[in-house]
């Protein structure tokens, strides 16, 4: 369904991503992992059309998305890492705005928006300004907005940020059902335990290049490591965290002589 072909992008001659290529099939949940500054955000911005690659192409259902961005965005649902919402709008007003921009008819939009807000436990807050919402509540509004138009492709960037235990569990169940509906899903998160449980494949990126692309179980077996977190740490050559933490404590203890 989604295909990235040899994407390159630099900023002021400094490479951000180099030769990024992968596919996401219908019904597949693909984890997209990497340390901060690895190139995840650049890749996502290219997929969503917010950024042009220096080279390479993004295809959706065999067509270059750049040839008709309006059509592509009509089948894309996106939950960004940062919840940039119009805080003076209520949750319902925000969904109405998104739905109208999506071309959803008023009666259907009203039914979908109010139902989604109720299911996400925001019914009693639907008329309150988003400025009064907690971080988790704002995140739930973003998730509702991404689902409103029944997209074929979904990109979730740190979707569990701010969610409580119940909402996090609901979201994980939702992902499984969306995949069963044939949606193609890119899931970006630093919560590797969840990634390991729900993703069919995991792509690991570091320094702008893909280091691994395989099911989580294959990666752990191949590298003879107990879990995805250990695989990730070894692939991206992260420092041994206990040693770094100990050195930080030693710096705290420093005193003037």
Helix content: 25-40%
Task: Find the structural class using helix and strand composition.
Answer: alpha/beta
- Low-pLDDT segments, ≥5 res: none
Strand order of the largest sheet: 6-7-8-3-9-10
Bulk shape: globular
Number of strands: 10
Mean pLDDT: 87
Order of helices and strands: EEEHEEHEHHHEHEHEEHHH
- Span from first to last CA? 64 Å
Q: How would you sum up the major sheet?
A: 6 strands, mixed
> Strand-residue fraction?
15-25%
Any idea what the radius of gyration is?
20 Å
Continuous helix count: 10
Describe this structure in words.
- The protein is of the alpha/beta class and 257 residues long.
- Helices cover 40% and strands 23% of the residues.
- The chain has ten helices and ten strands.
- The strands form two sheets. Strands 6-7-8-3-9-10 form a six-stranded mixed beta sheet. Strands 2-1-4-5 form a four-stranded antiparallel beta sheet, covered by helices on one side.
- Strand 4 and strand 5 form a beta hairpin.
- The radius of gyration is 20 Å and the shape is globular.
């Amino acid at each position: 369904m989604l295909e990235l072909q040899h994407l390159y992008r630099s900023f002021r001659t400094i490479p951000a991503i180099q030769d990024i290529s992968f596919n996401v099939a219908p019904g597949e949940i693909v984890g997209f992992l990497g340390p901060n500054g690895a190139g995840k955000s650049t890749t996502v911005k290219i997929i969503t059309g917010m950024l042009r690659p220096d080279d390479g192409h993004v295809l959706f259902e065999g067509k270059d998305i750049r040839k008709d961005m309006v059509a592509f965005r009509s089948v894309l649902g996106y939950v960004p890492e940062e919840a940039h919402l119009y805080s003076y709008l209520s949750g319902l007003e925000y969904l109405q705005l998104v739905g109208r921009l999506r071309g959803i008819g008023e009666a259907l939009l009203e039914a979908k928006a109010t139902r989604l807000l109720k299911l996400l436990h925001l019914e009693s807050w639907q008329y309150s300004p988003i400025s009064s919402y907690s971080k988790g509540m704002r995140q739930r509004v973003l998730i509702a907005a991404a689902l409103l138009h029944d997209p074929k492709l979904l990109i979730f960037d740190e979707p569990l940020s701010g969610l409580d235990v119940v909402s996090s569990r609901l979201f994980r169940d939702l992902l499984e059902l969306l995949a069963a509906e044939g949606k193609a899903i890119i899931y970006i998160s630093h919560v590797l335990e969840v990634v390991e449980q729900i993703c069919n494949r995991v792509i690991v990126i570091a320094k702008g290049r893909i280091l691994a692309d395989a099911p989580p179980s294959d990666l752990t077996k191949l590298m003879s490591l107990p879990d995805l977190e250990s695989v990730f740490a070894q692939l991206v050559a992260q420092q041994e965290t206990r040693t770094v933490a100990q050195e930080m404590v030693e710096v705290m203890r420093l005193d003037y002589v």
